[in-house]
Design goal:
This protein is an alpha+beta fold and 91 residues long. The protein has 3 helices and 5 strands. The protein is globular.
Length: 91
């Protein structure tokens, strides 16, 4: 029997995609961090590794809604860097 692939919804574009293809942003006691392993404990939100989705998420305050709090600008900056790295390695 085929193994079930977990899907998650992107907070930018709203599309459902396999969890492994997405970047996980995590809310923990220490604050908001990027979870590159996908294994850390905390409330997670997922975003496609594309600059377009990040722009949409920022505009619609997708992360703010997911975590029910204002997300600092640094988080968006580190997400931008992470996505640039991902896009450059994907080519």
């Amino acid at each position: 029997m085929a193994k079930k692939i977990p899907f998650r919804q992107c907070i930018g574009c709203g599309e459902m995609k396999p969890k492994k293809e997405m970047i996980r942003v995590l809310k923990t006691e220490e604050g908001i961090i990027l979870d590159t392993t996908g294994r850390k404990n905390g409330r997670g939100a997922y975003i496609c590794p594309s600059a377009e989705c990040l722009k949409k998420a920022k505009k619609t305050k997708g992360l703010d809604r997911s975590f029910k709090m204002a997300v600092p600008e640094e988080i968006y900056d580190s997400l931008t860097k992470e996505i640039e790295i991902f896009e450059s390695t994907a080519k």
